[in-house]
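Components:
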Amino acid sequence: MKWLSDDKLNHLRNVVSEPDFGATKYTFVKELGRGGMGAVYLAEDRELDRLVAIKVLNTPETTEDLRNRMVREAQIIARLEHPGIVPVHDVGTLPDGRIYYAMKYVRGSRLDEYATQGASLRDRLRKFQAVCDAVAFAHAHGVIHRDLKPQNIMIGSFGEVLVLDWGVAKLLAGENMSYSSYTTYSHAADTSDGTVIGTQNYMSPEQARGEIDQLDERADVYSLGAVLQFLLNDQPKVSKGAQAVCAKAMSQTKESRYATASDLSADVGRLLDAEPVSAYRENAFERVSRWVSKNRFLVLLVLAYLLMRIFLIFTSRR
Amino acid sequence: MIDPDTDIGGPLHKFPVTNHSAIINARSDDQLIRRRAFDTILASYWKPAYKYVRLKWHAGNEDAKDLTQGFFAHAFEKNYFAGYDARKASFQTYLRTCLDGFVANERKAGARLKRGGDMDHYQLDFAAAEDELAFHASTNLNPEDYFHREWVRWMFTLSVEAFRQRCADLGRTIHFQLFERYDLSDDKISYASLANEFGLDTATVNNYLAAARRDFRRIVLEKLREITATDEEFRTEARSLLGVNPE
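Structure:
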């Protein structure tokens, strides 16, 4: 038997791990990354002459459960038409039986990379608000993401915000009948109570305990709070209001959290407008200092006017 | 510790039994099934085990040969592999741990026992293994990683041979020849050159190579399935084998 050098061995490993798009309209370009469920590749759509991101289940022999989950992910995203949710173009099966789906290829940075590029606090809060709005849209259509984290959020080249990776999303029971075509893949079919799905540090306590049946929009609200905390971590001056927003979103009991992602988004909007947030009751001094900070120009104008008046009074008496 | 990856699993995660697993069959009461299972395990592990003994235990080639044969003979006699519990470690780790224990005991006894009488009918090509050692006499890997890497190398080597045989059996030698020229040779060659060399058009070369790679992949995974006990272990080892860190 012929000896396989390290180079040859690595080549063969790539040969068997790279997806075979031979029977599809896509041409493999390169691997973009790997996650808990699959790998994402950059590929060229030969028919439409454009680049797409293709997610392929990485597991060599997909179980029916995982296959269903991948198809469900594509179906869920395909129905969520929102500028903050990455669109799906196509779903299919590779010749080796692995499921793939083609998505819009988003050029830009992941939120965790974006945060290291010196973005200001205001910019971070604006991006975060856009994430909340996309998630709120999904919630309104009966879908909870369950795996929100900076690695699953992309900031596009033009500043657009996109929420990716809906692979472990869950349909809320009894929601929107237009989703009936894939309710056969409901949470009861693919994740039983006691199964932990999500990412440590970003998942709610009930999710970490595997209480699948207890999960609702507020599990995502917790994750959004953790994302906000991540964005605030390296900021030198974080107001008590912002800290309180984080703390409320990340409350241990879901009853104490924001009821919806929209409520959280509204409080972040108040932070941006220097308005009082629902998560924090200010004392009189804080109220005044926030008002002064918000109306700095007006305060300076009044101060300048008063100083001028004093000066005039002083000089006229002389 | 922060784990950036999505985790799917949990306290109630179940590990279904893998079909056609030599590891499962090693527990069989049927002597014939057990023997076949043992043959599969031996074929899959003897070479990395030999190299590991040479490297970690600084054994001379004759010593390593006897220890390797002795280990597998002892494993069969004592039915070591039946004691494997997939919930505790991968089979590879279990086998390596058993091997370490065996060599340590042999060394402690102070006498190199000539074992492996039952192994004589196996044609284990120790000379080839010894030649290969010359290619990687110095390595920065620790013995455990070295064992794993050599096991991966051996799995791919066996898979190439199995693929060659299967192509011959199915009358698809051209598929293997294309695969050999493009994926196994050191020459950098284009599809167009291959098409010219084999008297085919480029699209056919593309199709044949895609089919060959697909079949090769299937064989690699079949081999892996034979020597893993659970679906979970199979998936983990497959990721490892395909160059992806499962953690």
